[in-house]
Amino acid sequence: STSGGTTSSGTSTSGGTTSSGTSTSGGTTSSGTSTSGGTTSSGTTSSGTSTSSGTSTSSGTLTATSTSSTTSSASGSSFWSTTYNSKLSSNVDSLKSQTSTVETVVESSSASSSSSSTAASAYTSPTILSGYTSPTRRFLSSGSSDTSNIDVLFCDIEGNAIWKWSAEDVPDATVTNSSSSTTEIDVDVDGVCSATTTLTVSAYQTGCSLQNHPEGCDNVYYKGCGGITVSPTSDRIVIARTGGRTLGVLNYKTVNNACQGQVVDAISTYRGKKFNSPTYAEYANNGILYFTDSPFGLATSDADFDGDTLDKSPLREIPFNGVYMLRNGTGQSVELVDCDMTRPNKIAFSPAQDIMYITNSQKGNSYVKSYIMADDGTVSNSSVFFNFTAHPELETDDGYAKGIKVDDNGYVYVVCYKGVYIFSPEAELAGAIMSDQELDSVSMGLGRLFISGSFGLVAQTSGVPYQSLPQAQVTCSA
After folding, report:
1. Could you count the other beta carbons within 10 Å of the beta carbon of residue 307?
2. How far apart are CA 110 and CA 129, in angstroms?
3. Burial of 427 (0-12, 13-18, 19+ CB in 10 A)
4. What is the pTM of this model?
5. What is the pLDDT of residues 81-100, one digit of tens each?
6. 357 contacts 406 by C-beta, under 8 angstroms
7. Does residue 21 surpass a pLDDT of 90?
8. Which residues, other chains included, contact 65 with Cβ-Cβ below 8 Å and sequence gap of 6+?
9. Which of 206, 342, 419, 472 has CB atoms 3.0–4.6 Å from 230's, for a disulfide?
10. Would the pLDDT of 164 be above 90?
């Protein structure tokens, strides 16, 4: 429906099939989808001016030196930026622009009004793809085009689904003149008048399914997927099926004249033993797949995520929570990379692909680990990059490190509890994007920083530099 110059799009689902429609009129764009699990929509934000307060860092204690004013989003969540090192933060576009450009992309109507969320209620792992049907429009961080078509896939853990938010002709926020002011840059993530957006369910049963749980998924608490990644050597989309305890591949096919996404199990064991529950997966540029295997999919309630309850689950066949790799090519077998982390979760790589970062997602043991990567994919010299638990002044004890990404300048963005903490390559804290809501994951593309949580998905237009976006087929072939 269209009213008052507002664009809307919707998707209804029935019997596992999806359909979508988009109308365009006037300026603002919003999107919505109704399913049995709730509705989603998008909106805009308001913002204010920045203020300063605080003292400088000393004696190993991290102290904020300035804090911006708060931006309120349509999803009901608020965001502001905090500076810890003014010299370093001047190199981070997301901190220089503060949070005045944060706006809602996808809003969950089923999100709790509480500032905290359960582990199984979040939207996680937004993955940004460039249009598969227009390979010449592939986005480069250097700016090959001033607009682009993008798709953002993300996991709905509670709904056991993958959503796809698509936008056409989105302005590339990294293609600007250095002399341009913020007001001269089109900062609407939807592209205002030029962009058309749609929101659809891309696939159901993306974690737990009858294939990996023949008895059904009613008793599975963490039902959905935990990660989405695309092979750089093909258009294969690999899914960490946390609720299904496997790795799967997402394919699209036409059934009864409707395009359906379907995730099919591909790998389920290591040396004959069933995985705990693959938590996240990420391809390196050389085609090697790395993935984590924490026991989140074994949980029966949110309380199980505290302490060592999941380690004692009778469903476990592997006695450790591992990091694995699978080399590119036929006939390869899964190799163990690390078995010393207690809750290995999200994975990211440095721009040169010579460092791998992994978050450890456990209360009381929340940190980021780094590894040196060789050209053949092997890793060595692991060390703790940053230990959140060792810094109680950051007030993250009620949560733990989750999502992680690295920009083209090597700055590391880590989601922990209610903040996206941004570190230099030397692990110095530059600043943070903070919220009154618990956050889950972060992603980058087209000069935008996407942040997800139980509230949905927001985006900050900041000019953040990022590597080329992967391409994949996210619909049925014509």
Report:
1. 12
2. 26
3. middle
4. 0.82
5. 999 999 999 989 888 877 88
6. yes
7. no
8. 52, 54, 55, 56, 57, 83, 84, 85, 86
9. 472
10. yes
Residues in the chain: 478
Q: In the predicted model, is pLDDT for residue 7 greater than 80?
A: no
107's tokens: 């809003």
**Has residue 103 got a pLDDT over 70?**
yes
CB-based contact 175:186 (threshold 8 Å): no
pLDDT for the residue 132: 53
Quick: pLDDT tens for 58-72: 348 998 888 888 888
Q: What domains can you pick out in the chain, each with its CATH number? A: 96-461 (2.120.10.30)
**What phi-psi label fits residue 26: left (phi over 0), alpha (psi between -120 and 50 degrees) or beta?**
left
Q: Residue 314: CB partners within 8 Å, gap ≥ 6?
A: none
462: confidence class by pLDDT, cuts 50, 70, 90: confident
- Average pLDDT over the chain, rounded to whole? 81
Q: What is the pLDDT of residues 107-140, one digit of tens each?
A: 886 655 455 567 788 899 999 998 654 433 333 3
Q: What are the tens digits of pLDDT across the range 223-239?
A: 999 999 999 988 899 99
49 φ, ψ (degrees, to nearest 5): -100, 165
Work out the angle at residue 149's Cα, subtended by the Cα atoms of residues 19 and 193, and round it to the nearest 5 degrees: 90
Count CB neighbours of 26 within 10 A: 13
CA distance 125 to 120: 13
In this prediction, residue 334 carries a pLDDT of 98
| Structural tokens at position 307 | 């302490």
Q: Could you give the strand order of the β-sheet that contains 227-230, starting from the edge strand earlier in sequence? A: 123-130, 147-156, 161-171, 196-204, 258-267, 246-255, 237-241, 227-230
